[in-house]
Amino acid sequence: MTRIERLDGGPLAVGSATRVKQPGQRSTVWTVTTIDPPFYFEWRAKVFGTTMTAAHRLGETESGCRQTLSVDLAGTGSAVLARVLGRQIAKSLATENVAFKGQAERDLPV
């Protein structure tokens, strides 16, 4: 992500909206639809008639935690959008995971 702009205030909650800019993509407004702090949240955005649902999940492991990111596409044009943007979405998810890992490791108490 190259830019994130909250469009409302307060803690992240169902209905919270955020404008996200990712490399090679136009800015998109994502709205939180499900949240179970601190382990899970899901948000949705509409892109060219397709609903994109992204899920962010944290889970405990023996050595720390694991983050799982996923994106589902549904609706008109979803098959076409998946073919056109599938590799870019996969690359974005991998890049986000690396960034989240780096930030989490920097924030660990010493």
Structural features, described:
With about 110 residues, the protein is of the alpha+beta class. It has a single domain, classed as Alpha-D-Glucose-1,6-Bisphosphate, Chain A, domain 4, CATH 3.30.530.20. It contains one helix and six strands; from the N terminus they run E-E-E-E-E-E-H. A hairpin with a 2-residue loop joins strand 4 and strand 5. The protein is globular.
Biggest pleated-sheet summary: 6 strands, antiparallel
First-to-last CA distance: 28 Å
Mean pLDDT: 86
Helix fraction? Answer: 25-40%
The assigned structural class equals: alpha+beta
Radius of gyration of CA atoms, rounded to a whole number: 15 Å
Enumerate how many helices there are, as a single number: 1
In short:
The protein has 110 residues and is of the alpha+beta class.
Give me some keywords for this one.
110 residues, Alpha-D-Glucose-1,6-Bisphosphate, Chain A, domain 4, 6-stranded antiparallel beta sheet, 1 helix
Structural topology:
Blueprint: E1 3-6, E2 17-21, E3 28-36, E4 40-47, E5 50-61, E6 64-74, H1 78-106
Antiparallel strand pairs: 1-2, 2-3, 3-4, 4-5, 5-6
